[in-house]
Amino acid sequence: MPVLAVASELYPLVKTGGLADAAGALPAALAPHGVAVRTLLPGYRQVLARLEQPRKVLEMPGLFGGVARVLEARAAGLDLIVLDAPHLFDRPGGPYTAPDSAEWGDNAARFAALGRAAATIAQTQGFAAVHAHDWQAGLAPAYLRFAPRRIPSLFTIHNLAYQGKFPAAVFPALGLPPEAFRRDGLEYYGAVGFLKAGLWYADAINTVSPSYAEEILTPSGGMGLDGLLRGRAGDLHGILNGLDVEDWNPATDAHLAARFTAEDVAPRAANRAALQKRLGLAPDPDAPLFAFIGRLAWQKGADLLLEAAHALMAGGAQLAIIGSGEGGLEHACRAFAAANPGRAGAFIGFDEGLARLVYGGADALVVPSRFEPCGLAQLAALRYGAVPVVARTGGLADTVIDASPMALAADCATGVQVAPGSADALAAGLRRALALFHDTATWRGMQARGMATDVSWGPSAARYAALLKGLAARHG
């Protein structure tokens, strides 16, 4: 069954977060289930540079102020359809921001063009369904709903906090009928809501973990959209993200100083030593080494970790922090490392090789998010033998089994869960993790069970395939 996926980023071509990982891995995971995915991606400079033998299949004159071409090509092993619209995407900076980190002022037009192109391509190129990812693709279901031919759509929420909200003045340029700009449509508190459009007009909705699917139905987790989501609860599904376990494999990972397997984790010591050297930590083979990888942002709880890190320092542990984000948090991480020389290290930025070294060398990975739709860091940590210490929220709660007395007795624990949003609760969880670390047999058992956990796309791909095929059968 041919499916058109629509995404604003796609690993390994362009990535700012987990959306790229999921959109990049799903096509291969769905193929064994009879779902052939081609992904529509904006024609950013770095994407166009990687295309192999592109072929023009469509021209779209007058697309939000310029001429656009639709290209078919392959790149990095992926089947792509690329919206080559230089007036919208041929520019420096990131997918959403200029080099000075300010959001592009025409993002509404840029991603409305992506949605309109998706609907046109689906109508003319023989696709059975459209799978739209996050707010940047949120208008695709709206354009499809008002298109001549009925093609069903699935809308995936990767993070409800990012909603694509723009002034009402952009609506006339969208080319949608006037009735679309109302409460029962894409109007959102007097503005145009791209994510709301996806939630309202898609035939089915999913998010990236079962727990997050429940949390977003509540006022505290729904980010202002819980009422709409409760109204569509029958069409809402929670499907866990996974990892590409061919790429994420400690036995073959070229980024590691030493490769290892679940049967022989001894080489992890070399990764640990390399990580300590890279971040200026004392070359202590016995100190518990905890790590954080992620955006330095309120959602990710980096501030909570800095408040709770005294528990690690008092327990003789080391702390490695890798990430970037809010300026104040970047400064606070540097300051913490400076105040704890040899015990704490901070790398501000992102480096794929360093991240893999963290997963392959740290004893524990701390994920203290205030909310987390799914999270990939804890999945990578499980796969690479870094025991996760996570907040009990969203996909973190779904993927890590807490080392409670009952779970330890049943030999099923894979990590430590703590209450979200509390530095005190996190500090208590870190102390509990330290105590477990010093019980070598217990820690090794948790590590082994984590590495044996199925974090692949296999089970989730089967659910996506069934959902997409069901939509095509009912609405196609």
Automatic annotation (TrEMBL):
Pfam families listed in its UniProt record: Glyco_transf_5, Glycos_transf_1
CDD domains on file: GT5_Glycogen_synthase_DULL1-like
Entry GO MF terms: alpha-1,4-glucan glucosyltransferase (ADP-glucose donor) activity
EC number: 2.4.1.21
Keyword Glycosyltransferase: yes
Cytoplasm is among the record's keywords: no
The reaction(s) this protein catalyses: [(1->4)-alpha-D-glucosyl](n) + ADP-alpha-D-glucose = [(1->4)-alpha-D-glucosyl](n+1) + ADP + H(+)
Residue span, Starch synthase catalytic domain: 3-230
UniProtKB keywords: Glycogen biosynthesis, Glycosyltransferase, Transferase
Domain Glycosyl transferase family per the UniProt entry, residue ranges: 283-435
Pathway: Glycan biosynthesis; glycogen biosynthesis
EC class: transferase
Binding residue positions for ADP-alpha-D-glucose: K15
HAMAP family referenced in this protein's UniProt entry, alphabetically: Glycogen_synth
Family: Belongs to the glycosyltransferase 1 family. Bacterial/plant glycogen synthase subfamily.
PANTHER family (alphabetical): ALPHA AMYLASE DOMAIN-CONTAINING PROTEIN (PTHR45825:SF11), GRANULE-BOUND STARCH SYNTHASE 1, CHLOROPLASTIC/AMYLOPLASTIC (PTHR45825)
NCBIfam families associated with the record: glgA (TIGR02095), PRK00654.1-2 (NF001899)
Functional summary from the UniProt entry: Synthesizes alpha-1,4-glucan chains using ADP-glucose.
Protein name: Glycogen synthase
Organism: Roseomonas nitratireducens
